[in-house]
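Reviewer comment 2.1 asked that we show a complete input and output for one of the modelled complexes. We chose the 4'-deoxy-4'-aminopyridoxal-5'-phosphate case, as it is the one discussed in the main text.
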Amino acid sequence: MAEKVLMGKEIIARNEAMFSFDDRSMYFGDGIYEVVRIYGGHPYQMEMHMQRLQRSAEEMDIPFSTEDKQTLSASLNELKNENHLQEGILYVQVSRGAAERNHLYERHEEPVVFAFTKEMPRPLDQLQSGIAVYLTEDERWLRCDIKSVNLLGNVLAKRKAADHDCQEAVLHRGNEVTEGSSSNLFIVKDNELQTHPATNLILNGITRQVVLEYAEQLGKSVRYDPIDIEDLAGADEAFITSTTNEVTPITEFRGTKHVQLKVGEITKQLQERFEDDVKKTESGT
Ligand code: PMP
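Response of the prediction step:
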């Protein structure tokens, strides 16, 4: 059976999907997106993702009402069911719309919404043994809190990391570490977690927010300060969080600094909590 996609409000076969030549997301990266994880056929934290999409739309001056949000989440569920997706992701994008190329946008364009699903197993090996990450300068714009499809700084950093046999790039502005190219960063030092505060310089990850809740449940204190690159060497543990990478331990930093680490106990405790959430999602509770 042909794979289905969502185009606007319609679910259609992927090979029938058509885009305008003049879509602003192609010319300007003028659009926003979300990636939602599916465990055992059930979406994980759909509402949080939809809320963040609505916030990104507001910040980008793209019309997206609470009613649009509800319609979209129902359509995404339908798409996931039509494609019989068990383990994978839902990708959804909202572009400002199509209009003859002009930097100046008007406010009458109709946003273009589309979504697809993709099967994706959980990264179980990496969750256990950890990853190497590549430290490199953060060259992105100053509204990283918006989940926009304009991801040039992110994709160039990711390529650089891969070219150094690393699974993720970790970005820093001068001495201050911000986040990963597609993840948030945490370190643990003397039983305390540290992560960048949710400012304009990072995307406030859904997994980051979930992990912060676990930390509170576990009675761990959290320091919301940019991590100084010099402090990585003294960290007891480090990990990244994201929808697809969950809570992934970092065993090595390369690039600007070289640091080796072991998979730590607090990281493991947070992973256990996450595992409980996955099980609950899988069972539909
Ligand atoms: N930061 C950036 C730059 C990202 O692209 C992502 C992944 N979308 C994250 C953080 C993690 O966010 P989430 O936990 O919502 O996937």
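The helical segments are 24-28, 46-60, 66-82, 124-129, 152-163, 206-217, 265-282. We note this here for comparison with the apo prediction described in Section 3.2.
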